[in-house]
Amino acid sequence: MIAMFDAASLRSGLRVLVVDGHADSRVLLTNLFELYGVETTTATCVREAIASLHQAFPDLLISELLLPGEDGYALISQVKDLEAMYQVQLPTIALTVCTTEHDQIHALTAGFCRHL
Fold it and tell me: Rounded to two decimals, what is the model's pTM?
């Protein structure tokens, strides 16, 4: 039997930052998360994501690896620097169209917690 998604595991008040250069992806994830009471902030690029993180750290960061300008690897590098500066740990997920085994290894080695 396949386990179904347990919406009860999401808690109201959870804050997520979604970073993706494609508006459709940002809207889809925002709508999905907000259905379950998750506060969602979005960014289209690394610069916007880092500016958002300087204002407030979310509970989770989800990012595409293929971003306009700097890529998701540049983002995770800067996120790791901010974690050290602010002495926090931010769970991160690379939710990406880059799906090869090499992409997965690269994302995890770069610092993402998960690659999907």
Answer: 0.89
